[in-house]
Amino acid sequence: MNHGQEDHGGGGCCGGGSHGHGHHGVVAGPGEELVTCAVRGTAQVKSQAEARGLTRDFEGERYYFCCGHCAELFDADPHAYTTAA
Questions:
Q1: Which of 16, 52, 64, 77: disulfide with 35, CB 3.0–4.6 Å?
Q2: What secondary structure letter does DSSP report for 62?
């Protein structure tokens, strides 16, 4: 889901000044799955997000993040990113 996207100000942790939304050049290799950052809506390689601890389980669903900052934003107010707009 991609609700209530935050502005990280000046690019922040998520791609250093990326514009808009999308894959940020993320490409999944053979057998890899892409997931979406619950805060920014950007694509991430699922196995890499899991390896870096950038996942959260909330109300029976697993959410993925592109960086620690997005995970912290989610932790602070998960409903802002999981409630339908």
A1: 64
A2: E
Whole-angstrom Cα Rg for the chain: 12
- Is the C-alpha dihedral spanning 36, 40, 45, 51 positive or negative? negative
Residue 7 DSSP label: P
Residue-wise pLDDT tens for the chain (85 aa)? 444 444 444 444 665 444 344 445 677 788 899 999 999 999 999 999 999 999 999 999 999 999 999 999 999 999 999 976 5
Cα distance between residue 72 and residue 53, in whole Å:
12
**For the whole prediction, is pTM greater than 0.85?**
no
> 65, 55, 63: which is closest to 12 by C-alpha?
65
Any domain includes 40: yes
* Residues facing residue 43 across a β-bridge: 36
Record the tokens describing residue 49, joined without a space: 């997000």
